[in-house]
Design a protein that fits this description.
single chain; alpha+beta; four-stranded antiparallel sheet; 1 helix; 48% strand
Length: 86
Amino acid sequence: MNRTNRTTVTFNHSFAIEGVEGRQPAGNYIVDTEEELVEGLSFPVWHRTQTSIRLPKRLDGSLTEEVTLDPATLAAALAADAAAGP
């Protein structure tokens, strides 16, 4: 059994993500986390299999691309954004 958790993250400043060319504009971004159920346990445990973020291909946001990334990379980008202030 698999499931997807969808969240929205907000960047207050333009940002860069390792493995993605160029800087991305500030704004809200959809992040999907794919998980699968670990079988054989007496309680439900979910294992993360993939994390992806939707990035704009056009400045007007009319086209997006989904980029797979390490959750630690996303966390570092969000921490750098927070450290930059409001």
